[in-house]
Specification:
By secondary structure, the protein is mostly helical. Helix content is 47%, strand content 3%. Strands 1-2 form a two-stranded antiparallel ribbon. Strands 3-4 form a two-stranded antiparallel sheet. It has a two-stranded antiparallel ribbon with strand order 5-6. Strand 1 (70-71) and strand 2 (74-75) form a beta hairpin. Helix 6 (109-116) runs antiparallel to helix 8 (151-162) and helix 12 crosses helix 13. The longest helix is centred in the middle third of the chain and has 31 residues, at 246-276. The radius of gyration is 25 Å and the shape is globular. The two termini are 26 Å apart.
């Protein structure tokens, strides 16, 4: 997810907003949680194009999507597990839920203190679902008639706040406040500020995510989405949302995944109709099952290096340089250039107007150029293992190939895992040399 946010470096926003206004927005965002309306979901123009002018087909698509996913203000998840249930079922569920309780204790510290002191009038919850549950419990306190509530009711009230997990409606409201302006209501990367940003905010409806720790192609894990939310994407306008609590971030992951799955189902249904010219009775459910099967396989595709991470040496850097420039091995210089400046011959083409233009488009239809490796701007993370994964796995949605999958005519790997580490060391050395 790439997008502008006032909590990010305001330098990027100066071309769009006056500096004083940017500062005011940043100040307000830091002091309080904004409230924003949840905008209704619109049909994806790419899906409508496949349906043509068939009004009945368009209405059917809208009905089926609403039956599966609800509406923007009242979303629903049609899968087997999401949110707390998914976390509980995960291999490290106990640890993750304990971390959420710690986050809730910090976020709701004032409310918890008021409950402990029996000052029920002072207790407030900012999330609609939590406030509703609190008011229901508060009615029980008043019915009991005991000032400050009984010990049992106080314990229940504390657990309400400590065990809170956002509903999809809670997360829809948070998304509207924090993400809509760049990513749009449906996650199409077409929010009001998206037109001023380069690169454009991510359109999540394709189910294509660049920055994961997985072997491509694969849908992201929860941890992949969480990491992007926490760290942002370097070199873009996608900010870090680390100021939000861990529980809020988990809820945003739920909602972004819902938008992504919904978008994939929408496009698949429209493509099937375009091909067949009619709807099958179970078309929506069949497409949903196909999409969910890809998301459920994410954990199985984790790409890891089985061994200690080797430290860079003079020898490994030299070996990496040779691999980088070898057309039968890494062949990195063809795109990234001999000096790593992103100006290799394969990066460009001559357009119809006779001018030089980027040779490739990404999965979202935007021109894309290779990274200037000397700048040290690593969008998928700057740890050695992050660079290793980018080289080994490639970058989904773009032309960066997966060297781990490159084979010779006999089916043997062209570049070994250890040689990929040499490439990492050489790329790191290019960053250290610097320069434009």
């Amino acid at each position: 997810m790439d997008g502008f946010h006032p909590m990010r470096a305001p330098i990027q926003a100066k071309a769009v907003l006056p500096g004083a206004l940017v500062g005011l927005l940043a100040f307000c965002a830091a002091c309080s949680e904004p409230s924003a309306p949840v905008h209704p979901w619109r049909a994806n123009p790419a899906a409508l194009e496949k349906l043509g002018e068939d009004a009945e087909a368009r209405a059917r698509l809208e009905r089926d999507l609403e039956a599966l996913f609800g509406a923007a203000g009242a979303p629903s998840w049609p899968g087997e597990a999401l949110g707390r249930a998914e976390l509980e079922a995960s291999s490290d569920g106990e640890r993750r839920l304990a971390r959420l309780r710690e986050a809730n204790a910090a976020r709701h510290a004032r409310a918890l203190a008021s409950i402990e002191a029996g000052e029920w009038d002072e207790v407030r919850a900012r999330e609609p679902s939590l406030q509703s549950a609190w008011l229901k419990l508060r009615a029980e306190v008043e019915a009991e008639g005991a000032e400050g509530g009984s010990a049992e009711l106080r314990a229940r009230a504390k657990e309400l706040f400590l065990g809170w997990y956002p509903t999809l409606e809670d997360s829809a409201r948070l998304y509207a406040a924090e993400c809509f302006h760049c990513h749009g209501a449906e996650g199409g990367g077409d929010g009001p500020t998206s037109h001023f940003l380069k690169p454009r905010p991510r359109d999540v409806r394709l189910g294509v995510y660049k920055w994961t720790a997985l072997a491509s192609p694969a849908r992201p894990r929860r941890d992949d989405l969480l990491r992007v939310l926490k760290e942002g994407v370097n070199g873009t306008s996608m900010p870090s949302f680390a100021r939000l609590s861990e529980t809020q971030l988990e809820g945003l992951v739920d909602y972004v995944r819902l938008l992504s799955v919904r978008g994939e189902v929408e496009l698949r249904m429209a493509a099937t109709f375009e091909s067949d010219g009619e709807w099958e009775d179970e078309a929506a459910r069949d497409e949903l099952d196909a999409v969910l099967s890809r998301w459920s396989a994410a954990e199985e595709k984790l790409l890891y290096y089985d061994g200690p991470v080797p430290a860079p040496t003079t020898e490994s850097i030299a070996r990496g340089e040779a691999l980088y420039n070898d057309a039968t091995k890494g062949n990195c210089s063809s795109c990234h250039g001999v000096d790593g400046r992103g100006d290799g011959p394969a990066a460009w083409k001559i357009g119809p107007d006779g001018e030089r233009a980027p040779a490739y488009l990404d999965a979202w239809g935007d021109p894309i150029l290779p990274r200037n490796l000397r700048l040290g701007i690593w969008r998928g993370g700057s740890r050695p293992i992050d660079l290793w994964r980018r080289i080994a796995n490639g970058i989904p949605g773009g032309p960066m190939p997966a060297l781990r999958e490159a084979k010779d005519k006999d089916g043997a790997r062209v570049v070994s895992d250890e040689e990929i580490w040499s490439l990492v060391h050489y790329v790191q050395s290019l960053q250290e040399r610097g320069g434009p």
